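G., the chain you wanted modeled:
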Amino acid sequence: MLARLVRRLPPAYRHEWGAVLSTLSGPTPDAEVRLLTARSGSGLAMETTLLITTWRREAPELPGSAIALALESAAAQYEAMRAEHDVQVVVTGPSSPAVPVRLTASVALDVIARARSSLLVVSFAAYGVRAIVEELGRAVDRGVDVDLVLETSTDASRAFGDLEHRVRMWHWPKGRRTGDAALHAKLIAADSEFMLVGSANLTDRALADNIEVGLVLRDRVVVGRVVDHFRSLMRPSRGPLERVRPSE
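Predicted structure as tokens:
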């Protein structure tokens, strides 16, 4: 019940509820009214009724200060969980009031800049993106291991020619594919913790002009699974991906 409440209550509301609860001796008849009037027009009548009803049924002997403490503890756990499992929407192209604008190009650079030990970059197409290439170079300079997984039919590796001796490049050989299958995924993952995944290829147009949508995930479990999947595909002689050896 408290978990549901803290998801619904903005921090300012939680503080006001806590202040009211601390003055209550129990789930008295006027307790619900006092909580409702703590922030008029909040639209939380259902949550207020749920709190008082549950309090009256489960622990009527507890004072309001104990309920306030439990509410703050649940809120602290919720905020900690949100910090570890964060999702943000990223868009390219025309903006709208529905989504705060975070352009794909700037987010891609930000994810690369966050990396401290490893980067996994996967793209169907790549062209131009000089800023991305330079940011990857800076990542290599600070000791980050970089793996680029690129589609061969689009000649995507040419965009990263300046890095070919500094990063590991991978492709999916035609002999290991079924029919006309293609490597069509697009993602950038840093340290198995942050990941940008979406519709945008690593091209100047996709990162700045097209209508594209993506998500930035901060979730070690989810991002870790994606990275582990690609690492498994890279297993020497066993996985479908093959490392591209740099030219002499």
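The longest helix spans residues 64-84.

Shout if anything looks off.
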